[in-house]
């Protein structure tokens, strides 16, 4: 019976064949232990010389790291194994011998591993992170489909920018200027006026020269937009969504979380509702924490966000930022126009902002005024303005950064491990 490592539990005490690679191995004179991986998981294959004979045992001992093979054996339950199962090997068939595989079980530097990212993702730790990423993607679609959202794909090439062009990658679109998208939001607003509740899930690009553990040049965003939804309801959707992600990972990625040494108690606490603190109160709090340099009107950096987040054991919303700090499309607070109806969701444990969101301006005259204040070309945004001309309604939305969320839920320190092939300030290879 041919099967995968993930499905061996269905074949206890039966003989199966698995196509696999050798992740590692060790042996004595009489027993060889093969650490096998097949993409679906990891399992140990035990080869006993007295049971398989000299020829098969010699073949098993000689197989090198990352060689590919078919392994046949009997599935055994084993409480000590991470998956709960082990394979008593009866035969091995070499497919391809790997010679001098560069990533050995010894320690390697980060730059070396990044140069060999195409191979590094085979490792147990990277496998666990990618599986958690996949679970977050799967549960994202599940959450939005179950809550009446329609998936819409905005363009990646755009003729204008939602937040200005200073951090965009410019390109030529035949004889016009074009940019790689930093957000699909403006197009999602148009989609929301047609379909009510929508979400996008795609790559975005920031030409931002940052080298922190939180930044990537190319990353993936989930961007919902909702017609007839105002500020408070927008926050409720966000906290329900993030709670759903956390609990899905906790439920479906136990082996991966254990591999990464993640503190499960911290994930268990991530359930709505989340605390909220206004920008005003955050500034006051930071002064008490010794951040004397921050003044009202200043943006928060990583140390400020971390100090605020450390005060809570769940994500926390920072709301009502100064209008001057935020993009042109955010709705001012009607009772206090110097701040906007927006919120950043800050993850605990120093992972920073994972969501930015707001109620959007739905009044055409005010939107024209804000575009003018930001010195943006009204002609380029004519289509966007028309959304306010023909049946405008209050609407809200947000964007969640996938890689930061993967880093936080999996507990890894740097976002470069949360995407298969990271694009960093000085890295375009492999």
TrEMBL record:
<dbReference type="GO" id="GO:0004816">
    <property type="term" value="F:asparagine-tRNA ligase activity"/>
</dbReference>
<keyword id="KW-0067">ATP-binding</keyword>
<dbReference type="GO" id="GO:0005524">
    <property type="term" value="F:ATP binding"/>
</dbReference>
<dbReference type="InterPro" id="IPR004522">
    <property type="entry name" value="Asn-tRNA-ligase"/>
</dbReference>
<dbReference type="GO" id="GO:0140096">
    <property type="term" value="F:catalytic activity, acting on a protein"/>
</dbReference>
<dbReference type="GO" id="GO:0005737">
    <property type="term" value="C:cytoplasm"/>
</dbReference>
<dbReference type="InterPro" id="IPR004365">
    <property type="entry name" value="NA-bd_OB_tRNA"/>
</dbReference>
<dbReference type="GO" id="GO:0003676">
    <property type="term" value="F:nucleic acid binding"/>
</dbReference>
<protein>
    <recommendedName>
        <fullName>Asparagine--tRNA ligase</fullName>
        <ecNumber>6.1.1.22</ecNumber>
    </recommendedName>
</protein>
<dbReference type="InterPro" id="IPR002312">
    <property type="entry name" value="Asp/Asn-tRNA-synth_IIb"/>
</dbReference>
<feature type="domain" description="Aminoacyl-transfer RNA synthetases class-II family profile">
    <location>
        <begin position="130"/>
        <end position="430"/>
    </location>
</feature>
<dbReference type="InterPro" id="IPR006195">
    <property type="entry name" value="aa-tRNA-synth_II"/>
</dbReference>
<dbReference type="Pfam" id="PF01336">
    <property type="entry name" value="tRNA_anti-codon"/>
</dbReference>
<dbReference type="InterPro" id="IPR012340">
    <property type="entry name" value="NA-bd_OB-fold"/>
</dbReference>
<keyword id="KW-0030">Aminoacyl-tRNA synthetase</keyword>
<comment type="similarity">
    <text>Belongs to the class-II aminoacyl-tRNA synthetase family.</text>
</comment>
<keyword id="KW-0547">Nucleotide-binding</keyword>
<dbReference type="GO" id="GO:0016740">
    <property type="term" value="F:transferase activity"/>
</dbReference>
<dbReference type="InterPro" id="IPR045864">
    <property type="entry name" value="aa-tRNA-synth_II/BPL/LPL"/>
</dbReference>
<keyword id="KW-0436">Ligase</keyword>
<dbReference type="InterPro" id="IPR004364">
    <property type="entry name" value="Aa-tRNA-synt_II"/>
</dbReference>
<keyword id="KW-0963">Cytoplasm</keyword>
<comment type="subunit">
    <text>Homodimer.</text>
</comment>
<dbReference type="Pfam" id="PF00152">
    <property type="entry name" value="tRNA-synt_2"/>
</dbReference>
<keyword id="KW-0648">Protein biosynthesis</keyword>
<dbReference type="GO" id="GO:0006421">
    <property type="term" value="P:asparaginyl-tRNA aminoacylation"/>
</dbReference>
């Amino acid at each position: 019976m041919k099967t995968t490592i993930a499905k061996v539990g269905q074949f206890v005490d039966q003989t199966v064949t698995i196509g696999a690679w050798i992740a590692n191995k060790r042996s004595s004179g009489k027993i060889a232990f093969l650490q096998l991986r097949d993409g679906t998981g990891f399992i140990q294959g035990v080869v006993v010389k007295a049971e398989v004979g000299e020829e098969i045992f010699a073949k098993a001992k000689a197989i090198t790291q990352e060689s590919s093979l078919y392994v046949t054996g009997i599935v055994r339950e084993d409480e000590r194994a991470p998956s709960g199962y082990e394979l008593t090997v009866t035969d091995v068939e070499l497919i391809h011998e790997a010679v001098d595989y560069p990533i050995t079980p010894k320690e390697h530097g980060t730059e070396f591993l990044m140069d060999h990212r195409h191979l590094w993702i085979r490792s147990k730790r990277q496998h666990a992170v990618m599986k958690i990423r996949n679970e977050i993607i799967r549960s994202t679609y599940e959450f939005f489909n179950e809550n009446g959202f329609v998936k819409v794909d905005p363009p990646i090439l755009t003729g204008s920018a939602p937040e200005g062009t200073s951090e965009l990658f410019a390109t030529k679109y035949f004889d016009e200027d074009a940019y790689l998208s930093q957000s699909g939001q403006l197009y999602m607003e148009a989609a929301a006026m047609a379909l009510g509740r929508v979400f996008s899930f795609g790559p975005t690009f920031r030409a931002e020269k940052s080298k922190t553990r939180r930044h990537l040049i190319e990353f993936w965003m989930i961007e919902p937009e909702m017609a007839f939804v105002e500020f408070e309801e927008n926050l409720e959707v966000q906290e329900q969504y993030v709670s759903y992600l956390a609990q899905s990972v906790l439920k479906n990625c136990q082996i991966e979380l254990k591999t990464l040494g993640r503190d499960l108690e911290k994930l268990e606490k991530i359930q709505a509702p989340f605390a909220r603190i206004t920008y005003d109160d955050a500034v006051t709090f930071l002064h008490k924490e010794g951040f004397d340099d921050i003044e009202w009107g200043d943006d928060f950096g990583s140390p400020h966000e971390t100090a605020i987040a450390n005060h809570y054991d769940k994500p926390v919303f920072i709301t009502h930022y100064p209008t001057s700090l935020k993009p042109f499309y955010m709705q001012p607070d009607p009772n206090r126009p110097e701040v906007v109806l927006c919120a950043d969701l800050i993850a605990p444990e120093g992972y920073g902002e994972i969501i930015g969101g707001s109620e959007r301006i739905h009044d055409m005259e005010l939107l024209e005024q804000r575009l003018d204040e930001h010195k943006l070309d009204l002609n380029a945004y004519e289509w966007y303005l028309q959304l306010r001309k023909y049946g405008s309604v209050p609407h809200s939305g947000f964007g969640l950064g996938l890689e930061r969320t993967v880093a936080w839920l999996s507990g890894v320190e740097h976002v470069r491990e949360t995407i298969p092939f990271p694009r960093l300030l000085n890295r375009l290879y492999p």
